[in-house]
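Write out this protein's structure.
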Amino acid sequence: MGVKTFTIKISSLDKHAEAMTTGTLAGLNAVKYAMGMKLLTLPRSLATGDLIAFANEMSKTSEGRKMRYTFAGSVFFNRMKAEGLYLENPYDIKVKVKKLGLDDIFNLRIV
């Protein structure tokens, strides 16, 4: 398993929020990989999980490699709205994450 397991093509992610969310996940998975633990894959039912999967899929095409994928004002933003992934209310986001059993995943001590 190489580094590609932990990251997506970073140059396709254009903004700070996207870099922070995917970078945090990559860091968590790097530690888990080094410890022989199962890696965390965010589900597509969350905006970040769909962003990672969608950007990876699109990076396989010439046209897709030319695009930028952001949570605001891009092809992905339109996709988020169409797929019902765009949530503005923090409470709604917390409820959704909790239903997926992913609340506090970054508060777990793994080392």
